[in-house]
Amino acid sequence: MIDHYSSSMRCEGLEGVRSARKTPLCRSFQRRTGGSPGPTAKPLTRVRRRGTLGNRKEPKFLRQFVLLAAVCAVTLTLTLSASADAWTGSTAAADLTEITASADGTLERFDLELGQTVTADQELGATSTTTVYAPLDGTIAAIHAEAGDTVTGTVLEIAPVSRYTVTFTVTGAKQTPENTLVHSGETVYIKCTADGSHRAVGRVTEIDGSTYLVEVLGGELYVGETVRAYRDSAFADEDRVGLGTVTAADTVTVDVTDATLLRFHCAVGDAVERGQRLFVTATAEDVTITSPADGVVTEITAAKGDSVKEDQTLARVAQRVMLTFEALQDDAPLFHTGQTLTYIRGDDPHETPHTCTVTRILQQVQGGSITVEARPEERSLPIGMTVEVRND
Prior knowledge:
By secondary structure, this protein is α+β, with helices and mostly antiparallel strands. The chain is 16% helix and 44% strand.
C-alpha cells in the first residue's frame, strides 16, 4: 500500500496530493477516518478514475480520440479533393432527324429498336405502296377511276402543255455522224420548210431507231406542215438533225397493272409538272423505308402493320449524342470550349475512361450553376445513360 501510494505521488506530485486533500472525496475520507490521508492511506479507486490529467488511463483515451478525429479529417479532406474534379452527368440526343413514310400504305416491315445505331440510306422497313408521278408537264384531262378501285389499264390522262408534237427522222439530217445521233431530253429548234416563217423550240422525248418524237415547248406551227430540226437557233444547215411532220398533241395516258388506288393527289383540270405526284397505289412490290442520316434511334412512333400517311413520322434519329452535366458557378474557370475531359460510362463495370470535348458552356440564370456540353469520342451511346465526367 505504501508503495502504491508513493507511486501515485510520483505521478501526481506533491501539489497534486495537497490539492486532492481539498476535494470533496478527501474531505469525506477525513470524516470517515477522523483525519487526513497520510502516507499509509490507500487511495480511493474513484479518485483515480476521475483524477487529473496526470492519471495513466485518460491520456491513452484522449490520444485514441485525437487520432480518430485526425483520421476522419484526413479522409474527409481526401474525399472532397477526389470529388472536386468529378461531376455526374448523362447522355442526351442532339441534331434529331425524322424517318418518314414515303407514301400512304401499310407498314409491311419496320425493324427498329430504341438505341439502335443506323447509317444513312440504311433500309429499315417497307410499305406496300407505290407513288405514281406525272411523266410530263400538262393538265389533267380525265380521271377514269376512284380511290379504292383495283385497276388494270388507264387511270388518268394528261393533256400536254404543247399543242403540237413532231415526229422526226434522221434521214432528213445533214449527213454527218454527229447530226444522225440525237439524245433524249435534247433541245432542238424547229423551222417550217415552206418559207421558214413558222418557228418553234422543242425537246426530244422519245427515240425509236432513226425516228424520234419532239414535244413543242413554244412557238407557232401548223398541224400537218413539214419542218426541219436544228441543234442551233441560227438554223445553220450544217446543224440540221432531222425532217418531220407536225401533229396535234395527243393526251398522255397513265396506266397501272393490277393495282389498288389508295389516294389521288390531283383532280381534273389541275396543272401538273413532270415528276409531280399523281396518285398512290398498293401493289405486291414494297416501297422501302430508309434512314436519312447516321445516328442512334431515340424514338419509335409506328410499328409493323400500322396504316401510315405520306410524310408521317415513323421514328426519330439523333445524328449526334452529347454529354451534359451541371457544375457550380465557382467551377466555371475549370472549363473552356475545346477542352478535353474524360468520362466513365455508367454501364461499364470496368470503368474504362473515354475522352470528350467541351462544345458549349451555358450560364444558368438562377441557381448559381453552369451546364457543360461535350462531344464524346464514341458515336454510339445509349440516350439517358449516367456518366461520370472527370477533369483529369
